[in-house]
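Example (one chain per record):
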Amino acid sequence: LLFVFFSRLIFGTLYPAYYSYKAVKSKDIKEYVKWMMYWIIFALFTTAETFTDIFLCWFPFYYELKIAFVAWLLSPYTKGSSLLYRKFVHPTLSSKEKEIDDCLVQAKDRSYDALVHFGKRGLNVAATAAVMAASKGQGALSERLRSFSMQDLSTIRGDSSSTVPPSVTVRTSSKQSQPKTSRSASEGTGSSGKC
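Predicted structure:
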């Protein structure tokens, strides 16, 4: 199975890709058309293969037949891709070209409308989530602020005019009251040292 995969990769994709490059580089119209027909047939083959792999993989020599088919498409003696393109693909696409173009235009319009619709919906969901997060955050902040008394808040801001009565217990008093005590003690020692 690995051999089949690498054979198809090399002979079905890389080899034609290199010769397509050479055709474009040399600007040889005949070679260019030949490789374009191959790529159209190969694209159809790959699409069909997606479904046939599901239902026909049990068939004996199924993978070997796929490699033989790709070799037949590539061969300059059989000109398989050119034959399939001229006999089947070109007449079919020519007769159905208008309907295919109309379907593609409609699909393009629908996909654009769907993209705009889902984009608006996504923005609405994001905006709602942002508002909900902000309101929850604001609620948490107001709850946090409510847990403090006005005296606690003035202490946190550093207002020296308000003093905390001894009966009021400050939740963060151990961290905040020590610097004030050490400041007042150092001010007291500093003023006594100057006199």
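Caption: Residues 1-78 form one domain.
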